[in-house]
Amino acid sequence: MNNRSNLVALWTGSLLFIGVLFYWPLGKIVAMGLHGDWLLAISTPRVLSVLWFTIWQAVLSALLTLALGIPGAYLLYNKKFPGQRFVRALITVPFILPTIVVAIGFTSLRQLPLLSNLLYGHSVVPAIICAHIFMNYSIIVHIVGGAWTTLDPSTESAAALDGAGRFRTLWSITLPQLKSAVISATALVFLYCTTSFGIILVLGGGIVNSIETEIFIAATQYLDLPKTSGLALIQTALTIIVFIVAQRVVRNSAMLEEVQAATSRSRVDRRDWPAVLLTGFLLLFLIILPIATVFVQAFTHGNIFSLVNFANLSGNGARDLLSITVGQAAQNTVRNMVISSALTLIIGLTVLFLLTRRTRKRNIYIFQRVTDILFQLPLGVSSVVLGFGYLISFSGGPLPLRASWLVTPLVQSLLAIPLLIRFIHPALQAIDSELRDAAETDAATTSQIWWLIEVPIIRGVIATAAAYTAIISIGEFGAASFLAYGDQGTLPTVLYQLIARPGGENYGMAMAASAILIAIAFLLVYLVTLSYSPRRPSKSPAYWGSGSTPA
Amino acid sequence: MKISRKILIPLSSILVVGLVVTVINITGGKGPKEVVLVTHDSFVMSKELIADFDKTSGYTLNLIKAGDTGSLTNRLILTKGVPIADAVFGIDNTFADLATSNDLIDGSLTAIDFGDVCFNYDKFWFANQKIAPPTSVKQLIEPTYQGLTVISNPNTSSPGLSFLAASIEIFGESDWQSYWKSLKNNGVKVSSGWSDAYFVDFSGSSGKGAYPIVLSYASSPAAEVRDDGQSQTASIMDGCFRQTEYAGVLKNAKNPLGAAAVVKYLLSSKFQSSLPEAMYMYPIVKDTPLPEKWEKFATLATRTYGDTLNIEINRKSWLTQWTAIFN
Description:
The complex is a heterodimer of chains A (551) and B (327). With 551 residues, chain A is mostly helical. Chain A has 25 helices and 4 strands. Helix content of chain A is 72%, strand content 1%. In chain A, the strands form 2 sheets. A two-stranded parallel sheet of chain A has the order 1-2. With 327 residues, chain B is α/β, with parallel strands linked by helices. In chain B, 42% of the residues lie in helices and 21% in strands. The N and C termini of chain B lie far apart (68 Å). Chains A and B meet through helix 1, helix 12, helix 16 and helix 21 of A and helix 1, strand 2, helix 3, helix 7 and helix 11 of B.
């Protein structure tokens, strides 16, 4: 076997993988969607109102998160105060939590008399928006804050010397310079909110629906496949449009420009009170309170302190609701995470290897471009849509994947591979080509260059990407809710069952399991923040530009 | 031939795909002795009964819960090529036609139990408040009972759908929507499933919720008998729906013989006599002994509504109209 046939095998393997596991189910949805009276099925007042709700709640969530996030970015990245690192870790926790845990956190607030009236009294929409702010606040803070540290502080100081107030300086000097960071961060939050599934499913209670939950309901409650497929197409079109727009904005910006972070950050002083007040209020009511309420309720049974809820986790819930215990679901989740991360790394790195081969042959270049696009398109497909596609494509026929436990890790890796490629590709391209040339002159083979030079250089990026892939797999709920049954349930599907049937001990079990997950997430984030040098705070590992949702 | 590390990548990825295919063929290869029963979320079968089934039949029973009756049926239809289980319990008369028309069942559905979907009220609450409890579903829209009733969503719960069907027969095609609008205006709470409504929101159950009227079963008061031998709850006998639940062997089941044994066991006197306590349903097998308190607190309705309507044809339009009212 020679080098050439090796390459052919790599190309064939990768294209076969994406073709069978992504384009087949997608094609099935498109065919099914366009087959029936799809236009009729999706132009009903109900679907239009669902579409409208999806868009306006996402716009509102994104703008509110932005408005609240800018003072946070200022305080956490531009100023110094005691406990800053702790607060940075704290606000990052919600982002890596499984969305179902976020939903459970906001469900717990229903027990607080005053707040429950505010959030759920007239309609559940305030609760949904607040949950979205909770989840996405750190995106704005980290991206905008990271960009803020690269600004030259002298312009601001000059403006201040000329007597401009802080608001004036912020509005006319600072914000224009942060424009691209602000826009890309807001677009990312908007994207996450349009594909929000677990939060709206739980908090909306079947009464308030977005396209994602409507897809789920149309399939599982109404068995209306043309409508489901039509909705899936709308959702995909919406995501792709937002994605392209966000791409455009970011590409025109100077985001990648490396600027030395300002060395001296001043202490928080009295003139910062509006930012301190707003951020403190937000931290207290939107971040700490839901987390604290989950913990209090996890440790409460019959109004007294108790560990009963944790002990119940070894059982199957009230009236034997669960087919497996929460512990067994955790085992499934860990197994899925290992398999899907391994698969994502194997396929993702293979594709990256192929994409970055330098070639003078035009047809190979075109082939690379096509492959690149083929592996990017899954970014526009939400996990709910992909889960539905798997359900209708692999529940029979030549490849009855649905019956195997591997279906869940497979679909999760399909969601993660495009993100991995997007994340690592720029780092690979940034490797100095002289390094490769020198190695080639010394008669190194392509594979030697890849394994001995390129991969070691981007090792850190690969590790971050792998960690993010693992987080996606752990929290993934949309596809699992279509595919993971019975003894194959994952932590998110089991937690959903518990919170959707809160009678007896189930509610307490949901709280206890969520408390454990929150504690683990906090520990992980805190350890990661510790390992980053405080001098270079602008590198926030969790955000790799506009991506698709981990939900 | 030099085997580079690079070649390991395509090899391993092809291996993985190959593995997938083989694993599928072996899954459920836990042996022909395993039999999987899929049910709705409210199904209860005690560990003793499961052990008894395993011992007497020689199979190992695994239970899967797949949501409410509607999503159970729909998921089975979506996965019927390679079904998620061997046997099913819990498809009721509101979904039976859908199951048969989709050719879901090998053979026919077997009736296992039945019950009357009726409203219950908390007798203690009404006594304390010195309000006369309602005697008919028609009264639930009166100001006296404002903000007192919790029902389950007909989209996601079979008792909910049952009551919707009953209301359509009681009020007729022309008036049922205005009845529901009045119910909504009278502050009815909609929970997603029966167990949430009953165990979380209802004041007369262990959940000690805030609503003294709940959509449940005529037999539920038998489960709320207190120390003095009286039930805390009673049923509103006017406006009930007769619900029948079925079991069956799924088409393409991996273990059809085991599935048939499960269905047979569900008709055995041991399982049938467990039904009243476990699921508040009446055993379908005549002469199955009922618990003593059932004679007193679990009377069946003399007239039921909605069960003769063609639910299969109308479900979608009814639910769409209902949802439009509650959105």
